[in-house]
Amino acid sequence: MRRRKRWRQVEGDYHAYNRGARRLAIFADDGDRGYFLRLIGLTAKKHAVLVTAWCLMDNHYHLGLRADGERMGRMVRDLEKTYARYFNKKTGHVGALFEGRFGSVWLPDAEALAYVSRYIHANCRDKGIRAETYPWSSCRAYLGLVERPAWLLTDPVLTWAGGVEGYRRYQAEVPPLRKRESEEDVAQAAFLEHIRERVIRAWSGPDLPERLSLEAVTGWAALRLFGLRPKVVAPLLGYSSGHCLSNVVSRLCQRSGQEPGLRALLERVLAK
Asked: Which residue stretches of 109-182 are H helix?
């Protein structure tokens, strides 16, 4: 089976996430969460990675990371391997703790980074807890309610949001979560909303070609720019399958070489 493309060389921001095998809890108590949090700081320093956001739930975690793809991957693998040894020894758990390789999404700019940080912090709503009161995420550090760890980088998002109060308002506007089959599906579905907004902002110009849909361009951006999974994106955009969406995106790429209006639109999406 063909393995999905990984971002290995690009320097920038990433959203990394994983959950327990068979959806089992990866934290037995707050002591485990505290240990995992210390490991985040230690492995980030070891691999020269900056952490821009984090959230620990019962059976999964989310991280915002700034590095090139290679360092980011080494850090997350080190984090998971070290924690799994600790957890298995403590609890007597046998077998894999995490559900395969971690997932990751590359974030192209400050707006995408802010959008994902808000999504990460909002995960605790599944437990009926407001983000600003949940102790196991970086939201409280963003809002100045607790001391910020030295390894947590908040300036890029807070600058984009206009400071702490701006981020507080932005966090309060988070859209409702939509459940999916896996944590990766949830994360990619949430990021698709940001991609759609990016395309809408670029959807202008007197020379737009006919027979062009917002869904097709959003699918192109999701698959070709951000590497999202076709089978996850397809139903959210109204396509019957991932294969169908992939064909639509391929035809769109072919058309862009022949239609200046379409090519200009795709260039505007890239620039947003």
From this structure: 110-121, 139-142, 155-161, 164-172
> Which run of H or of E encompasses 220?
helix 214-220
Q: At what angle do helices 183-202 and 260-271 cross, to 10 degrees?
A: 120
**3-class secondary structure, 84:** helix
Measured CA distances, 156 to 46, 64, 162, 209, 227 (Å): 22, 12, 10, 37, 23
- Contacts of residue 128, Cβ cutoff 8 Å, sequence gap at least 6: none
Q: What interhelical angle do 242-256 and 260-271 show, nearest 10?
A: 110
CB-based contact 144:166 (threshold 8 Å): no
**Would you say 151 and 40 are in contact if contact means Cβ atoms under 8 Å apart?**
yes
Tens digit of pLDDT for each residue in 37-96? 999 999 999 999 999 999 999 899 999 999 998 999 999 999 999 999 999 888 887 788
Cβ atoms 56, 120 nearer than 8 A = no
The tokens 């559900």 sit on which residue?
A: 99
Which residues on adjacent β-strands are paired with residue 105?
A: 15
Contact (Cβ atoms closer than 8 angstroms) between residue 219 and residue 247: no
Q: What is the DSSP letter of 191?
A: H
- The Cα–Cα gap between 270 and 137 comes to 31
Length of the chain: 272
Round to whole Å and give the CA distance between 160 and 262: 30
